[in-house]
Amino acid sequence: MDTGGFEPFQTEAALKTSRPTVAKKAAKAMDTSKIWYWNGTVWIDTGLSEFDKAVSKAQELDDEVIIAASAEADQKAATAVINANKYTDNRVGTAVSSRIIPLAVDAEGYIPVWLEEGALDFADSVVIGKASSGSLVPMAVDRDGNIPVWIKDGKLGFAGLSDEAVELLNRRYLQTKYLTSVVSLRPIVSDGTSLFQWKAKAAKIKTGAAQQLRVAITGDSWTEHSVITGELIKLLRAEYGEAGSGWINLGAERNMLDGITITYSSGWTINDMDNGAAAFPYGCGPDGFTRTSSTAGSKITLGNLSKGNKLSVFFGNTGGVFSYSVNGSAETEVTADAAQRLMINLSGTSSVVLTVKSGEICFWGMHMRKTTGAGVEVNKLGNGNCTGRDYLKISPGAQANLSEFIGADVVIIMLGTNDYRRGHSTADFANGIARIINGYRSASPGCACIVVAPAQSSVATPPIPLVDFTEMVFLLAPQIRAEYYNMYDDWAGFESENAQGQWNDNLHVSQAGAYRLAKKIYKSFLEL
């Protein structure tokens, strides 16, 4: 075996993986006939093998012509080509031929990119699987062999965007960061697929069935005040008919629907869940209000009850006694026991008086329903100034207690306006919403949920930006099987919308704004 005095290795691969113990050494790979030199750190191809000499001799004439014909400046370039040819030999493991065409040469004569039999190749291409698949074509390679841009199966791909590029796109298109979209464009509404129960019942009504639809709208003052709910009711009743006034709350503001009136004598204590000291030893309704009295003779009077034939009165299990009277008739006494509900039949426009007779009485709220015919019942169940954190005090129990009775087909939740200005966390915001809908679904699992991310109101230096709660809506919605309306991005900033008459004050929309909001929800989700 002719090794020329060099230590032989059966294969070049075996030679290159060996690590001599001496500082300097020469060896020969028998499979390639190449002679390698160990410099104490790495193996170096000497270019002194018979094969290398043959290639070198074949190139000498071309090299001499190139150098002789070139000016001094061109000689450097020509030399680089020669070095490049040698580098290509070493890099791709073959002699220079028409199969390999260098596309770029760096200052040291290295070729990072070349064409091989018409196909693009590059240094370290095997790292990304080029050797096993021809479907990926790199478009650029950096000095470290990284590939930032490529084409795979005819489609453009890239490793990512720098922070500077993301910020540039953000400033150009939305001025806020949204991680699920390259240019931070949040969608405005979801696709409504979870509203299958609502849609099925709506279809029955539209084809003549005596079906009823039921809506619960809950959250903060946007859903306690009558302005938004009132506009939504007009749209829904015009399309599906009317099936009662729904929930009657016991809040201090007395925001009633359908012209219902409510008055209180002395002796009543109101409990409101947005009060930090709020406690509900006898429970409460889904809106977090109660009226409690231990004073015999204390009265609550409900007037102009015109939409519905069944009044339900909900109360805590205190063991006290109260009475009711309809349109001035004789009183009927009731014990506030575990039933927690009294149902009173009505005919025509009516008034009802509730009177404490003995012990303690804790009322949660009342409800008006039309028990026959088709239509839609909207239950206004909001609580002004509340946040998701406040709802954690009563949810999901308060909603679950009335889940079967209310039987909501869809729950609309509007929170966030108070959360961001009061500095309540996005985690509490999300947890509160999740518990609300879980309570309503306890006896109505097909109930859909629509979460509204509110428009930008006017709050100076809020502890938490409102957009953080908008982002949380998008994270939360798929977890709780909810739809969403992104009012935050659908509306312009506060100053622009306020100039157009869409705001009533710094926190609440105007009548026109309420119509616009209600119409968006109706057209996006509730219209069949």
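Above is the first protein from milestone M3; the second protein from the same milestone is given next.
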Amino acid sequence: MIKIILLISSLFILNSYQASQQIGTFFTETTFSSSQGWGIIGSSAIYDTQMGKSVFGGKNGFAVGTTIYKLLEIPQPHHTIRMKLRIWAINKWESEYIIVKADGVVVNKQLVHSGLTSNFAQFLFQEIFFFHSAPSIIIEITSTLDEANNNESWGVRDIDIQAITCPVGCDLCSYSDTLDTCPKYQLQTSNFATSTFTTNQGWVVQDSVVQQLFCDKILMFGYFPTGVSIFKKFYLPTTFYKVKVKFQFWKIDAISTSISHALYANGDNIWNFDQTKTKTLNICSLGSNEEYVNVDIEFESNSQLITFQFYSDSAAGEYYGIRDFYIYALLCEDQTMLCINSPTEIVTNPDIMDFQQSVSDLVASFSSSLPSEWSSYQSFSATPRISVPKCTEASVPIQYMALYDTLYKDFTLNIHKTLKMIFYMYSQSKQNDVLLYVDDNLADTIQIGYSSNDVNCAGSASGDKYEEYTLYAVEVDHTSLLTRISFKGRTYTGGNFLQGFNKFEIYTGNCDCEICTDSGTCATVYSLVDIDFAQDTLTDNEKWQLITYSIQATTCNTKEILGGYNVISKAQQVRALYKSLPTHLSLRIQMNIYFLSNWINTEYLVITLDNVEVWRQKVLQTNYASQLCSAGGATYQVVEIDLYVSHAQSEFTLIFNIESGSGDEYWGVRDFIVSTSNQIIS
């Protein structure tokens, strides 16, 4: 026996200027055999046929304790949801309810009763309207049935969900708003606002690993232990006086304990977790039910750089995550000025941030032409290269650091205009050139040795026929606060070390106009930075290193990356040196880092800018074990970096290192973008 009931729970007469946008349709085919992305709590997937059409659930289908649910993204600004569906009620229903929830709130509750115990089916056509404006929605369908599915059950089909959208030009609105009356908030940006995402989207996880958690059918950025902080600095290119933030916050395995969670914006507390406003959903299968809440907060601000940071108390075994993070702003009337309190109250002497792109490297396909600014190298201790003259009658009883291959040292400097190096060079070898580099710039070519190939000292009466020991001084214009001094000599092929240097002094120079030269110009005043190899007996490499270059590009998931699997590990260091930047006071540096293979939660990738640490992050291989660069290839996880730093020099050096690595973890980089601004980051 089949009974048909037509129910319309609510009816809205839509204004003529309001339109609808279809969000999703499900189970509309005559025949289907998949859950179409719906999650099921308390049952396995069951399919039935009623009136010649498939039903999700149905006879002997969903019953006591069963809920089906679906998260839907609604990127269009909207104020109302319209939902249509057919619900089948099978066999004995004793004044029990079919319930529809939206974001944990009951939006429809329909009483069903039948006096028959078997072979009875009825379907209820429902059309439901309810107010809703969040950028996503969790729909739940459940019942109050209390018996097994062979006595009473339910199922659904023909689900149609539409959003009644805001007037064109409104990013937020209520039901009655027109273009003239809707809130003037404009959407600035969003993170984690799709049903699937694979990166951190620029967020930094302090002292824990970057990860995404699929709670059954719902993806969130998180499963972060309480006590771990996550943050991101956002650049908003418009000018504004007020900010609105919307996001969905999840607590996982934490219902039994009251934990303090908070969100800060530029150090100000703007939100605190309120457990009385949360809804529950048991989908992660990790412990207790999950709690979630849709947050909507406003705060006064006209800062174009806003750091949002989540904090929480620490409690063992409890976790949290976020998704659908949206930022809106009320704009200034004049976008060339800053304003405060209102769109027309202008701030005098405004300092408007305006980042302009100046570098774009490692994008698209680049393996055939790698940018010269990037170098991947492996450092070795130079201590075994400390040597003494091999002539039996050497004129000077000295020791020196042998000059073969490439030898380098990094120096941290104060603000300066020039760089000066003074050193002695020893040779008893045949004639050759030693190249002195400051950073990647050739500063001098030094010719040492004699043209004769005879380097045998035997028979020398004075001990100086085949020896040179000469003082050199080299000065270059230089302003970078971090520099690398490199000597490139002959390739070492074995035997005695016949050339080297010692008594290396490095100075920075600045103009001092209180001291004049004979010609009346300002004098250069020098400050000592370091002295190396000044002793008669040398036992230490003084932090000078030998270097072997090994830069190459690989492919991961069809994209070229600099480095990659079996290319850059803890033994290699990567340097990016960029010069001739436009005049600026701050930098924005963006890139995508590929973490590959066996990273564990004690290993970090660390980035320094001009010898100052600006970023560190770790990942865990088990979190991305199913994501492969290619069939049978290395596992990988992409982490997006978005850095803002104060910086005014014409060049900068980035150094990338693996900290505490074991040697079986690798990384690569691509999509490197640098933008500059003439405003100071406060």
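Note on the second protein: Residues 1-14, 459-464 have pLDDT under 50 and may be disordered.
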